[in-house]
Specification:
The protein is α+β, with helices and mostly antiparallel strands. The protein contains three helices and six strands. The protein has two domains: 1-44; 49-103, no CATH class. A three-stranded antiparallel beta sheet has the order 1-5-4. It is rod-shaped.
Length: 105
């Protein structure tokens, strides 16, 4: 009976050590992945929501149909787009009118 208990204890220890090693390896992998993301973040291109989704912040100048438009509440409402007062941005509704080019402030 003692031998069986010893064997079970040895097996339980081996399994727990294996889980600790796997967990430590996974934790190290996640830390390295986070560090890689931090290191690469300045290199990767930034997302431009105005060009991609039509979410343009107030103060930006965009070009649509060879016409410069300063994004503000008035121009947004004039063009029948959605103005978001709290966040101070304009949602350009129709994809075909998304700006092709943006002149930064």
């Amino acid at each position: 009976m003692k031998n069986i208990l010893k064997n079970i204890l040895i097996i339980v220890k081996a399994i727990s050590i294996t889980f600790v090693i796997i967990f430590a390896g996974l934790l190290i992998f996640l830390i390295l992945l986070a560090l890689l993301a931090i290191i690469l973040s300045p290199i990767l291109p930034k997302s431009d929501y105005c060009l991609e989704d039509g979410d343009c912040k107030a103060g930006r100048i965009i070009i649509i149909n060879n016409k410069e438009i300063l994004i503000d509440k008035n121009s947004c409402i004039e063009n029948h787009w959605d103005w978001h007062e709290k966040s101070q941005y304009c949602k350009i509704k129709n994809m075909k009118f998304y700006p092709k080019e943006i002149i930064y402030e």
